[in-house]
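HOLO CASE FILE
Compound: calcium ion
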Amino acid sequence: MTDQIDTGLAVVILAAGQGTRMRSRLPKVLHPIGGRPLLGHVLHTAAALDPAQLVVVVRHERDAVAAAVAEHAPRATVVDQDDIPGTGRAVQQAVAALGDFQGDVLVLSGDVPLIEPETLTGLLDAHRARAASVTVLSALVADPAGYGRVLRDASGDVERIVEQKDATDHERQVAEINAGVYAFSAAALAGHLAEVTRDNAQQEMYLTDVIALARRAGERVAAAPAPDATTALGVNDRVQLAEAARLLNDRIVRRWQRAGVTIQDPATTWIDADVTLAEDVTVLPGTQILRATAVERGATIGPDTTLVACEVGEDAVIRRADATSAVIGPRANVGPFAYLRPGTYLGAGGKIGTYVETKNSRIGEGSKVPHLSYIGDTEIGVNVNLGAGAITANYDDIDKHRTVIGDEVHSGSHNVFVAPVRIGDGAKTGAGAVIRKDVPPGALALSVAPQRNVEGWVEKNRPGTGAAEAAERARSAQKPGDGTQR
Ligand code: UD1
Ligand code: CA
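Model generated. Tokens follow.
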């Protein structure tokens, strides 16, 4: 990777194809792996080379693809491919957009997402050292089906590339495939593309034909094998999409393990490309950490947890939880079985416990919502404890309203807070209360009618039942806890 712009380098990324084999409404290059579209990975890799120009060729669903380009590489130029099909035509139109550029053109495929910058700089170095017209990145693979094959002559020099559909049975035995990644000298590329025809099985302009044309013109043509064949994986269908996602995840997991993160079960742990994890984070099995989630030192995530675009503070513990756009403070405790929806903020040392759903709510430092609750559009101060079954009734069928709970409030079990409502600092509420009116600081709020026991009701109204017999036995034995008022 270079720090300065490589003035002799232009990068072209091919992203105009439909991707028929995906059988999808979504253009192939926009299918995500690791939280980014396939094309997004290629754009990040290309940008890391600091090329003088970066061009992306689009056609199928061009607006959607162009929007992804703007998001992942704002400085890239988008070029529209016309109706003439094929990778050769795509590059031809990209080259026209490069103007009088005279350096090397690196061509990448939007559907080959695992290529790494180091592989590309290696390819460029080899290309420049040999002063070649074309250097193609190749790979030796166990199953070459579907790829173009690199054909070499008796002395081992590259002769041409043949596509799967045009290849003879004999040619299909070749295990060296074209990765769809190439370095060209700009002048030779433009010249030879003008000679490419559509005389082949798919009636497309093949970029790969440039290799044979350059060789026939007596120019230097080479293939540089990729150091790791898996990085050359091309995604044409959803089987390969899952393979690419798995390989990318393996790479990301290993990177974090080397950076000091304990990942107990890499096979069931999925971490997106944009996640950041600090040293001594522990990730337990069955966990997905997605989008730009950031986890601070010492936190434990999992088992069976999904975090999407969350911030997790130091030494927080999150078990069996599902959280999106939530901020979880240091030493806070979440789960098991918690659902944190967008806008949840949990202060330091706080707790969102078992079977608790939260949304657009701020829970202050040291405050706890431990069991069976729904907390929405709510502000909770510090050191609050809500009893089991707290419900904020935030929706009156027309509008959403806020509940504001002060500091050091303790609520009884099974309370409903009918918003808009405010509970003052230090207030307490009784079990089963339905809080419809504001509670002043330090008050005890009760809303449940005093209990009334109707003596002998069961024996009178349900004679002969098991309940009546049990009550009679209890009465004659005068057991304590027999329901008589004391
Ligand atoms: C291509 C190569 C093949 C190579 C393989 C590597 C050609 C003729 N064949 O085959 O040798 O082994 O990639 O993965 O180049 N695209 C356009 N415009 C088009 C057609 C395609 O921009 O008109 C783009 C696609 O969006 C895709 C890339 O080019 O990103 C490759 O196209 P695809 O149809 O997948 O080519 P393959 O058959 O895989
Ligand atoms: Ca392909």
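CASE NOTES: The chain has a mean pLDDT of 96. The chain has ten helices and 39 strands.
CLOSED: yes
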